[in-house]
Design goal:
Layout lengths: L6 H9 L4 H24 L4 H8 L3 H8 L7 H10 L16
Protein name: Ribosome-binding protein aMBF1 (Putative translation factor)
Keywords: DNA-binding
InterPro entries: Cro/C1-type_HTH (IPR001387), Lambda_DNA-bd_dom_sf (IPR010982), TransReg_Diox_bact_type (IPR050807)
């Protein structure tokens, strides 16, 4: 009988594959952006339909974005920010001091 692989072991093996870390980071970013938009939408009492109309999108596009399924382009993020009466801030922060 063979030993079972745990989720952690499987994840570690997958993360060693080429491009896996980049894909994982892209998925994290999509999730965080979607979560932020959903939180702001709910705080403002907006439905997905009303946000979609205000941003010139479809409700299904808003739903996919909020679920972390897509990362929108900067122009789409700008439209979402405007529809949410929010400012869009894109920053690059060094991970370590420049040499």
């Amino acid at each position: 009988m063979s030993a079972r692989t745990t989720w952690g072991e499987l994840r570690d093996r997958r993360m060693d594959e080429p491009g896996a870390a980049e894909e994982y980071e892209a998925a994290r970013l999509a999730y965080e952006l979607g979560r932020t938009v959903r939180r702001m939408r709910v705080e403002r009492g907006l439905s997905q339909i009303s946000l979609a109309r205000a941003a010139g999108m479809t409700q299904s596009a808003v739903a996919r974005f909020e679920a972390g399924g897509t990362v929108p382009s900067l122009p789409v993020l700008e439209r979402l920010a405007h529809a949410l009466d929010a400012d869009l801030a894109v920053t690059l922060t060094p991970r370590s001091p420049a040499a």
